[in-house]
Amino acid sequence: MAPTTRSQNSSLRSSPAPTSPPSSKCSLSTSSASTPSKYSKQSSSSSSPPPPLPAKPRILILGTGWSGFTLAQRLSSSPISTTHQIVLLSPHRTMALTPLLASAACGIFDFRIAEEPVRRLGNAGQLVKYQVKVERVDLGGRRVWCRAVVGSNGNARLAAADGVPGEKDREGEGGEWHEGDGEFEIGYDTLILAPGSETNTFGTPGVLDCCLTMKSVQDAMRLRESILDCFELASLPVYEEAKKKELLHFVIVGGGPTGVELAAEIDELVHGHLLRIYPDLQGLPTISVYDVADRMLGQFGEKLSEYAMEKFRRRDVRVCTKREIKGFERGVMEVKDEGEVKFGVAVWCAGNKATSLVENLDVKKSEGAMQRVFTDKWLRVLKPDKEEGIVEGVYALGDAADIEGNALPPTAEVALQKAEWLAKHLNEIEYRKADGKGMEEEGFNAYIGRKDGVVDGGGEWTGKGAWLAWRSGSLEWTRSWRRRCMIVLVWVMNKFDGREIARR
Ligand SMILES: Cc1cc2nc3c(=O)[nH]c(=O)nc-3n(C[C@H](O)[C@H](O)[C@H](O)COP(=O)(O)OP(=O)(O)OC[C@H]3O[C@@H](n4cnc5c(N)ncnc54)[C@H](O)[C@@H]3O)c2cc1C
Questions:
Q1: In terms of Cα–Cα distance, which of 273, 271, 234, 266 is closest to 250?
Q2: CA-to-CA distance for 132 and 145, rounded, in angstroms?
């Protein structure tokens, strides 16, 4: 295809773009094709190019989570959207409002409230969005390689040239994949890396087969279905009491804020709602939180952490600290020094790791369980240790990145702050006018159930005030007035008519 022409006076591009001839395969770039492509043996099906793109400098945003979505939202309503082409690359059609997932799974909100559609960002045609997974980034050649994904909201199903895979393919049982299908490369003037992180199983056998995770709305839906299925099975007349207890044992692995909030929501759902409609199962459900550390909520102050653990114990939520999980088989967790623990549902919330894309990037990264791309305080990606300086035209933010010498936690709060700052900065154009302010660490809060919470930051506080701060955060997390109205409406309906889950 005819390559798109990029403006030569792009103020966002701090070094001239490479000028070697464009690649012969499907390419949306004027940038160099000097590096051999791993997709060079493409089938003819992938050679029909997407429509030509406008001749403007291109900003590529890789990822549409908290940081990528917020950045795109801000850029699309700022002057830069008239002078630059903004392209979003992500496998997902919607962005998950992760802090609302546990509440959605436990029936407080409808699932629609916990996600925002990406394609509604900006005015029609203002942003370009491709539903793809970025397979590789060529920082020297200023281009990335993409592969189309479809199915289950883009959850890792590869598109074939002859259309969307059928049911058989969706179940992973077959289907034909032709090399080169749905693949293309695209050049950039400015690249924003915001691919987030992936669940870290720490190599524990059986996690991905036997546990649920809590990263997306699909995960939240699966959890709700699984909890209800366990209640239905336990209410059948065929099982002994011991088996019913096993079915109604809900295990959460990971005592960080995600695990603790999930345990609190499940406890409230089970004791406040489900046992009213399954009265014969009174006294049988148990909720357990397992963690290898010696306390839950490790990043909070010790007093707050002890407060939360004590509250859980009083409600018969089992707090199992200093426990090493050896592995999982269906319905069974093997715990060091404890042996086999049977469960109905287990949710793995024990940690995150870098995506394979970040792992393969040749840039400066942090050490430790989760490698993060190091940036300076203007969020510019740093070259690897052996070289010095920044990678021109490349920024990174969100869970995937950290500012060297000023570590911030991998939270939505930080991702939002950085995205808002970067949108402003890209518009200001003259670097170094901005000073990186606004990215300092803020307070943490966590819900521990039954109208109680803990807040660490600006002092430590607990109780109803902390719960109110957390609950009102639900309104802040949404990205549109439409969802704010829906949340308020649902709160009122839940108050007077019970949760929707009770009717399913
Ligand atoms: C259940 C849960 C509850 C949470 N609660 C809170 C909370 O209360 N408060 C808080 O501050 N934080 C919370 N967090 C943390 C918060 O969700 C993360 O810090 C935040 O999502 C990070 O934003 P991000 O943009 O870096 O990544 P993400 O939001 O994870 O988005 C990453 C995006 O990149 C895309 N992507 C990944 N790889 C590729 C690729 N190769 N090609 C193209 N696209 C790619 C993904 O599909 C996704 O769209 C919670 C997290 C979870 C899981």
A1: 266
A2: 9
CA of 238 to the centre of ligand 1 (A): 42
pLDDT digits (tens, 9 = 90+) for 333-374: 999 989 999 999 999 999 899 999 999 999 999 988 789 999
Q: What's the CA angle centered on 34, arms 31 and 40, to 5 degrees?
A: 100
Region for residue 125 given its phi and psi (left: phi exceeds 0; alpha: psi -120 to 50; beta: otherwise): left
| CB-based burial label for 196 (10 Å; 0-12, 13-18, 19+) | buried
| DSSP assignment string, 358-419 | HHT--S-B--SSS--EEE-TT-EEEPPTTS-SEEEEEEE-GGGEEETTB---S-HHHHHHHH
- Phi first, then psi, for residue 81 (nearest 5°) are -70, -15
Query: How many of the other CB atoms lie within 10 Å of CB of 330?
Result: 7
| Helices vs strands, H then E, count in the chain | 14, 25
Ligand 1 neighbour 453 (Cβ under 6 A): no
Pairing of β 317-320 and β 332-335: unpaired
Please report the pLDDT score of residue 179 as a whole number.
54
Q: Is the pLDDT of residue 10 over 50?
A: no
The CATH T-level fold of domain 27-188 is: FAD/NAD(P)-binding domain (3.50.50)
Atom of ligand 1 nearest to the CA of 195: 34
Structural domain boundaries in the chain: 27-188, 207-350
Q: Is 213 helix (H, G, I), strand (E, B) or coil?
A: coil
Distance CA 193, CA 48 (A): 27
91 in ligand 1 pocket by Cβ < 6 Å? yes
Burial per residue of 143-161, b for 16 or more beta-carbon CB atoms within 10 angstroms, e otherwise = bbbbbbbbbebbeebbbbb
Domain made up of 207-350: CATH architecture: 3-Layer(bba) Sandwich (3.50)
pTM comes to 0.80
User: What is the C-alpha to C-alpha distance for residues 180 and 29, in angstroms, rounded to an integer?
Assistant: 18
* pLDDT (mean) for 123-137: 86
For 225-237, the pLDDT digits (tens) are 999 999 999 999 9
Q: How far apart are the first and last CA of the chain?
A: 52
Distance in Å, CA 10 to ligand 1 centroid? 30
Fold agreement between 27-188 and 207-350: yes
- CA of residue 114 to ligand 1 center, whole Å: 13
pLDDT digits (tens, 9 = 90+) for 160-184: 444 444 444 444 433 444 555 678 9
Q: Which helix (H) or strand (E) holds 268?
A: helix 257-269
